[in-house]
Amino acid sequence: MSKPKMKNIKKAKNIIKNSENVVVFTGSGISTESGIPDFRSPGGLWEKYDPYVYANYDMFLKDPEKYWELEREVTKMVEPALPNPAHKALVTLEQKGKLKGIITQNIDMLHQKAGSEVPIYELHGSAMTATCVDCETKFKREEILEQLEERKTPVCSECDGRVKFDVILFHEALPMHTLMGAQEITTDSDCFLVIGSSLVVSPANQLPILAKQSGAKVIILNLEETQMDEVADVIIHGKAGEIMPKLVNF
Questions:
Q1: Per-residue pLDDT for 174 more than 90?
Q2: What is the domain count for the chain?
Q3: Who contacts 43 (Cβ-Cβ below 8 Å, separation ≥6)?
Q4: Looking at 87, 111, 124, 177, which residue is catalytic?
Q5: N or C: which end of the chain has fewer CB atoms below 10 A?
Q6: 111 classed as catalytic
Q7: Who's near 223: CB < 8 A, 6+ residues apart?
Q8: Are residues 194 and 235 in the same domain?
Q9: CATH number of the domain that residue 200 is part of
Q10: How would residue 228 be classed by pLDDT, with cut points 50, 70 and 90?
Q11: DSSP characters for 63-94?
Q12: Rounded to an integer, what distance in angstroms lies between the CA atom of residue 56 and that of residue 60?
């Protein structure tokens, strides 16, 4: 490991150690080491499934079958995936009394699987539940997975209507209460740690700026440069699963 990287790891660890209200923002990069590929990367899911067709809310309303074709592929990736050392390091940080909340762009539920009990703000919705868009009946994930074993497209048991997981599709609004909660916890943070996000998706990518403006130290851990590197106090390039255990080891 290079001296500059070691220096940045030490600096980031000291910031975290001396903070009281750490908020973590996670993107797909924290989960790639759990075997869940970044959908946007070369060879990712969006090359096989055009998101503006298969993950488009307007298209779902017209033809739910394409959405569920995509979801079958996503389920094959997500169901067997296990938390990696980065997810587990966040549990350690929580046990130390430092971590106050997690904001995530992911729908893989790995933070929950790892045992995180702090509030988790899922900006892109949750795949743990589903809703009928016609009568608003709620379903547990397990109920939908059972239907998927028997039929191509799940339907509402109350009205035979269109059902989808509570994930946010293209042309569908972000859950405002979740976004507002994420913004509130960000303004209360004294350390804002970004893990595995390129920070290209708006409005989520504005959170590091909000944290900085509110007086927090900003740490960015990602394999590559991000669009928000200029607001960071510390930048570490590397794998989350390798670096995060070092950052919470104090």
A1: no
A2: 2
A3: 37
A4: 124
A5: N
A6: no
A7: 29, 196, 237, 238, 239
A8: yes
A9: 3.40.50.1220
A10: very high
A11: -HHHHHHHHHHHHHHHTT----HHHHHHHHHH
A12: 6
